[in-house]
Every structure is written in C-alpha cells, then in structure tokens.
Amino acid sequence: MRVLVLGSDGYLGWPTCMYLSQAGYEVIGADNYFRRTAAVELDCEALVPTPNLIQRAKIWEQVTGRKIITHIGDVTNYEFLLSLFEAYHPDAVIHYAEQPSAPYSMLNRDKAAFTIQNNLLSTLNIVYAVKEISPDCHIIKLGTMGEYGTPDIDIEEGWIQIEHGGRKDKFLFPRQASSLYHTTKIQDTDLLWFYVRTWGLRVTDLMQGPVYGISTDEADMDEKLIPNFHYDEIFGTVLNRFIVQAVAGYPLTVYGKGGQIRGYLNIKDTLQCVHLSATQPAKSGELRIFNQMSETFSVNELVERVKIVGKKLGYDININHLENPRREKENHYYNPKYTGLLKLGVKPHYLTDEVIEGMFRIVETYKDYINRDAIFRGVKW
Ligand SMILES: NC(=O)c1ccc[n+]([C@@H]2O[C@H](COP(=O)([O-])OP(=O)(O)OC[C@H]3O[C@@H](n4cnc5c(N)ncnc54)[C@H](O)[C@@H]3O)[C@@H](O)[C@H]2O)c1
C-alpha cells in the first residue's frame, strides 16, 4: 500500500511516516516547514532540536534500511500537490498539513486569515487531486473533538438521527467550536461531506482529542528520530505542557477553574488509529467519522496525575489558577462516544503513572533547552 502523508514533518506526521514505513508501507511525506518557521517567528521552538524532514528520512534509512520519500512543498499550491499524486498514485492520503493551533489562530487577523486559507485550501486541493488523479484514493483527514464543543447532551460519533415534525433523518452532529482553528476543522468536515455526496469520494474524518507523549517504538530507536515536542502555549498540548512546566519548576498553568473535560490519547494511539483506518477504508461515497480518543480527563485531574508522579520523582509542583484567557465553559457535561476505532482494532494505551514518569524522564534529559518565556503568553479571546 502506498500512503502519502501530508504534514510529515509534524508532531504526528513524522511518527506516522516511521510507523507505516516500519509496517512495510511505501511512504511519501510532504511538508512546507510551516510549523518550524512559525515556531522561530514566535520564539517557541520544540523542546528537542529535531533534524529537518530530509535529514530525518536519511537517519531512518540508516537505522532501519527502510526508505521514506520526502518532498518539501506547500499543499495549498495545487501544482505541487498534483505533482505528488501524478508521481505516486497513492492508495491513501493522510492529511495532517494544517495550522493546528487554537491560540495561533486567535493571535490577530493575519494569523486568522492564514489559518482559514491554509486549512481550507489544503483540504480543497486534496479533494481535487484525488478526483482528478486517483478517485479511489482514501482520504484520511484529521479533524478534532473540538468541532463538537461541549454540548449539554451526549456527543455521538459524527452523526445524529433527528426526529422533527414526525419525520426522521441523519445529519452531521451539531458542531460549535470555541476557536477559529476549530471552526476551520468544522468547515473542512462540511467541505468533505459536500464532495463525498457530490463525487462519491471515500473519506475518514478523525475527530481527534489532544494528543500527549513523545515516545513511539520507532522514535525510541534513535534520539534524532524524536517527534517535535512542543510545550509552549501556542503549539503545545496540555499534558505535554504540564510535564515541562513541572520539570522547569514553573507553576502549572491551569486556566480558570480547571473543570474543562476533554478526550485525550497517547501519540501511540494516533498511529494505530490512522493505520487501522487505512487498512479498513471508508467505502466510496462514505464520509466515515470516528471520535479519536482513549479516555477523558478534566484539567484538574491531569494536574493531580502529574503532581502524584512528580512528587515521587522529587518535584515540588505548584498550581497557578490563571484567569482563563479563553472563552470556554469551565464546568460542563461531557460524554462523547468513541467505540468506532476500538471496533477497527485499536488497543488503547491509557495514561498510567508509568507513562507520565516516562515523559518526565525524557523531558528531564532536555531540561536545559526549556525556554520559560514560551510557556505562557496569555493569548486572549
Ligand atoms: N496534536 C494534537 O493534539 C492534535 C489534536 C487534534 C487534531 N490534530 C490535528 O492533527 C494534524 C497534525 O497535528 P500536529 O500536532 O502534528 O501539528 P504539527 O504542526 O506538528 O504538524 C502539522 C505539519 O503540517 C505542516 N503544514 C501545515 N500547513 C502545510 C501546508 N500548507 N503544506 C505543507 N505542510 C503544511 C506543518 O509544517 C507541520 O509540520 C493537524 O491537522 C491538527 O489540527 C492534532
């Protein structure tokens, strides 16, 4: 199977390339280094200095003897994307190549405009390239659990049956995001659903929760293969950030009351989810939606877990309940369903104390690289 991974230099893209390559897939990765450039611009670079995509692919080949083909280019450039489809005719395309940060999208008008343009145009281009060159190619798209927001009803897996005026029909589950970034993901889903209905494409839209972790079987083979691990307010996800804050002796930055509940997953589970989605593709004319998460936690529960493990390792961890810079509910109902990927065969890695300790150990190794100024910027909306 030949898989095109777009956004292959990213936190999830690079480990996905290695995972699929190790599983025997022919992997082609493309990235325009947006995230690296943005991190330099905003002085919030990843904790571990990582070789660039071309260098990483060379290291991967030295370590495993396996080849990952790389291309540097922008997915919003249609000629570039089309050239990849023409050259490789992929069986599946995994679309990670978006601006992935809520705070980034809320920084100012230019970042908002970039987020809309980058995320929607990249998705549109993929739809067109598939239609023109490889109509049977399975599009695996990363959405987010943030598309649903925090409604006061159970969250279904993508779709809901509605009875109204004595009649019934099935619709996309109501979505109400709490940042512009998350709103572009809703728009992506709508775009995909339109083209699935119109052109009969096969699409899997993965509503992923915040990912944590740095260790994967492949990344553990060589320090230089580590994923880019962000701990800053712009690109870092919450548990990754808390662990770096704990190691840096920085009071954990809890926004408001800390009752915000989300569905989390280990980076190893992301790899399983996209892999199993690729091996069991959506049907032609189907928009298949899975809620991609392994368990739910409130922010306060994460803090407690980090504190317990940190204390065992000798850290004195303090908490700072900051005035919430975001507009979000701090105490709310949250009950998402997430059985679809389990049915495909995903075996979740749950957040144990050992997993948290493993993250502490890796972060400790790179402690001297921590930039305290990147930890909290207070991007408000
Ligand atoms: N990390 C998470 O917790 C999480 C949670 C839910 C959804 N997601 C989604 O998963 C995807 C990957 O996230 P990530 O955490 O790996 O982010 P990331 O920023 O580390 O990776 C995205 C990669 O895509 C590249 N990219 C962006 N725009 C591009 C373009 N126009 N052309 C080519 N390359 C481009 C970036 O340079 C980057 O390397 C994103 O779509 C994100 O929204 C991530």
Task: Explain the overall architecture.
- Helix 1 (13-22) links the parallel strand 1 and strand 2 (26-31).
- 38% of the residues lie in helices and 19% in strands.
- The model has no long low-confidence stretch (mean pLDDT 98).
- The protein has helices spanning 13-22, 34-41, 53-64, 78-88, 102-105, 109-133, 180-199, 238-248, 267-279, 299-312, 340-344, 353-365, and strands spanning 2-6, 26-31, 68-72, 92-95, 138-144, 159-164, 167-172, 202-208, 211-212, 252-255, 261-266, 286-292, 295-298, 319-322.
- It has 381 residues and is α/β, with parallel strands linked by helices.
- The strands form four sheets. It has a seven-stranded parallel sheet, with helices on both faces.
- It binds nicotinamide-adenine-dinucleotide.
- Nicotinamide-adenine-dinucleotide is lined by residues 7, 9-13, 31-35, 74-76, 96-98, 100, 118, 122, 142, 144, 208, 210-211, 228, 237.
Which terms would index this structure?
seven-stranded parallel sheet; three-stranded mixed sheet; 381 residues; 14 strands; globular; alpha/beta; binds nicotinamide-adenine-dinucleotide
Question: What's the SSE blueprint?
Answer:
Layout: E1 2-6, H1 13-22, E2 26-31, H2 34-41, H3 53-64, E3 68-72, H4 78-88, E4 92-95, H5 102-105, H6 109-133, E5 138-144, E6 159-164, E7 167-172, H7 180-199, E8 202-208, E9 211-212, H8 238-248, E10 252-255, E11 261-266, H9 267-279, E12 286-292, E13 295-298, H10 299-312, E14 319-322, H11 340-344, H12 353-365
Parallel strand pairs: 1-2, 1-4, 2-3, 4-5, 5-8, 8-12, 9-11, 10-14
Antiparallel strand pairs: 6-7, 11-13
Helix pairs in contact: 1-9, 4-6, 6-7, 8-10, 8-12, 10-12
The site of nicotinamide-adenine-dinucleotide (NAD) has 27 residues, from helix 2, helix 6 and strand 5.
